[in-house]
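debug: dumping io for the single-chain case to check the tokenizer round-trip. Nothing else runs in this session.
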Amino acid sequence: MRILYILFFALVLSSCSDEGNIDTLQGYAEGRQLNLAPRSTGILTILNVVEGDQVDAGAALFAVDSERAKSQLDQAISASAAAQAQLSNLQKGGRPEEIRAAEESLREADAAFKLAEQTFARTKNLVDRGVLSTARLDQDRATLDATRARVTEAQSRLEIIKLPARPDVIDAAMRELEARESAIVRAETELRERSIIAPVSGRIEIIYRRVGEIAGPSQPVLSLLPPDQKRIRFFVPEARLAEVKHGGRVDLMCDNCQAGLGGEIVFIADQAEFTPPVIFSEKERAKLVYLVEAKPDQPERFLNGQPVAVTLQ
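debug: decoded output
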């Protein structure tokens, strides 16, 4: 009998409590964290933050080993310098040593031609006077023609050496230089991305990796919670769904929180669900509710998972 009386009074008190808070909806605070990780796998070498730190956008958070990335950048710079030198050489023509050698060959050929001219003139004079036979004249004429051809050949060779390479060869060298310069950009990006900075201001929530551990694209180092990514999630019974709308205002209350906190409704689910376990009660367990999210005006006042009472305005 005594137990029955206790159960009866408990039910009465529960009923009174529910009726006194009929306008209050139950919810909780939740933050949408950013999991930050390097784009390339490496060993974590620098960790500048601890859990709970408030960081500004652009702050250096952590870095992974960069020796290989630095080596790749140095290699790309060297290859680009070589490609630039090759292009300059093709655009300028022959090297100074080659040009000097060609000029010397031309001078030698020209000297031989002048000597052949003089010899032919003397021989022709002697032939005309009947001193020498015409066979000697023919021989000197052949020598003169050969030396003249060597002069022409030496002149052409000098002109070719002074000319730049063919346009198609120069174009290929320019494409090679562009490829080498692109490799520098990729190497610089790779090196820069091994040092991670905060994309936005926020609070360091969880550190998953420590110095010496391996981090990568699928192995984040830490999670960052921006203030504007904190939401108050609460559940509205189907019967009261018409009371909520996007942009609507709500009053927020929590244990040991200051009075006057509020927020704005930014999300209303389009599908019903059963009351989640975090707000189970005997009275509401079987009811269908809709998830609603409100963006608090002062997100720093709420902690993740903190129960929040919501009143629609």
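debug: round-trip ok. The two ends are 45 Å apart (CA to CA).
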